[in-house]
Amino acid sequence: MLKTLSQGHLSLLETCPRKFQHTYIDQLGSPIDPDLQERLRWGSQFHLLMQQREMGLPVAALPAEDGEFQLCIQALVDAAPELFEPNTAELRLSEQPCTLFLNGYLLTAVYDLLLIRPGRGQIIDWKTHLKPKTSAQLVQDWQTRLYLFLLVETTPLTPDQVSMSYWFVRCQVPETGAFAPQQVTIPYSLDQHRQTRAALQRLTDQLTHLLDQPQAFPQVEAAKGICRDCSFDYRCDRVAKRASLYFPPLSAVAEVPIKPIS
């Protein structure tokens, strides 16, 4: 039975319980788009290099075809030198795991870089998306909500003393193609902390209830339009409903006589 929940689990459970079931309970998979696979490979390699750099290990020995990594890292250092300057009053933790047991589940997170100073905690997250998300989107993202919640719950820091900064490292200047990392920082508050706790309680209660039931998890409403890009649309019997938006029923299509070949 699933007992460990990450931000990905929470996001999918809230979006579509049925897809959550297919993905995490039934462990059904689907082929990964090659472009997505390459983006995931690039992101994984970038995170590894940033961890290596934080440990004081060299990152110069990269394959020639991956020189883009060096450009991105250097652009990031130039844009935010304060992130990389040694500070004796600062605790720096790279790829730092954080866990909390809540309502029967182990909530988990991994901080790309965690900076702890007297009376202040900052989560740094490297994003390799080609298009940055807005601040409004990130505030509602389960990664932001869970990561900040866990930091407050597992340290003496209060909500107003913590923040989370996303760095979108692959942003480029259209005219020159030069990398220009963009930052979005999300502050935190006691009200947000209480709201996240209530949401976590609700979702974990919901999951416990669903796991105790013999029937399939509920589907997302078709009207929301998110089934179109889901790999489980056929399994969930959403293909016919989707196709009806584009094709008329067969009864409305006139017959076309086929002449025999002479």
CATH class of the domain at 35-200 reads: Alpha Beta
Work out the helicity level. Answer: 25-40%
The low-pLDDT segments are 241-247
Distance between the termini: 66 Å
What is the number of E strands?
Answer: 6
Examine the coordinates and then state which fold CATH places here, giving the name of the CATH topology of the domain at 35-200: Lambda Exonuclease, Chain A
What is the CATH architecture annotation of the domain at 35-200?
Answer: Alpha-Beta Complex
Structural class call reads alpha/beta
SS summary, helix count: 8
Radius of gyration (Å): 23 Å
> Could you describe the largest sheet, including whether it forms a barrel?
6 strands, mixed
Quote the beta fraction.
Answer: 15-25%
H-E string:
EHHHHEEEHHEEHH
Mean pLDDT: 87
Based on CA inertia axes, which overall geometry fits?
globular
Give a short synopsis of this structure:
This protein is an alpha/beta fold and 262 residues long.
